[in-house]
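TA notes, week 10

Several of you asked for a full example with nothing omitted. So below is the full record: structure tokens for the whole chain, then the designed sequence directly under it. When grading your own attempts, check the secondary structure regions first.
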């Protein structure tokens, strides 16, 4: 092979190597459910003052959110205990939560929680993987909005015999 052809081919081959690796990385990561970009990330950054104001509202309300999870057939029963600082239950709220397993943040579930006892709200959580879950609560009572982000360790369902 002539040197006049060999060197351009060598340079082209060397340039093709990183392009190949980047293409493989993009294809691999775009199909990986454990890799996800936070939805509306830019909007959240722009609305930082609103977020900080909501934290202050949460503090003034003084509500406490305690989560629990228990296996229920093929699903997991997710339960929220919502109470005032003095322990009295918060009733009559419209509550929703966005739930996702930390290892699969691209697979989010939006749940509407139903009140089944004073201050107790619940919903079934499908496709449960054992481990750490993030639960993002939004509870509306009249014109009052309470938000909370919690990390809950959900255990594996007991093995069937």
């Amino acid at each position: 092979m002539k040197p006049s052809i060999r060197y351009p081919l060598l340079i082209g081959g060397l340039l093709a190597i990183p392009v190949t690796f980047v293409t493989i990385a993009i294809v691999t990561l775009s199909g990986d459910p454990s890799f996800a970009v936070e939805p509306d990330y830019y909007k959240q950054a722009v609305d930082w003052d609103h977020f900080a104001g909501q934290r202050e509202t949460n503090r003034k309300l003084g509500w406490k959110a305690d989560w629990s999870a228990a296996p229920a057939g093929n699903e997991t029963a997710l339960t929220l205990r919502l109470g005032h600082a003095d322990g009295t239950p918060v009733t009559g709220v419209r509550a929703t939560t966005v739930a996702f397993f930390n290892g699969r943040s691209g697979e989010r579930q939006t749940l509407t929680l139903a009140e089944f006892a004073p201050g107790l709200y619940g919903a079934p959580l499908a496709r449960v993987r054992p481990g750490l879950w993030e639960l993002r609560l939004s509870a509306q009572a009249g014109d009052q909005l309470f938000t909370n982000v919690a990390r809950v360790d959900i255990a594996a369902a007991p093995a069937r015999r």
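The chain has two domains: 1-31, 41-154. Use that as a sanity check on your answer.
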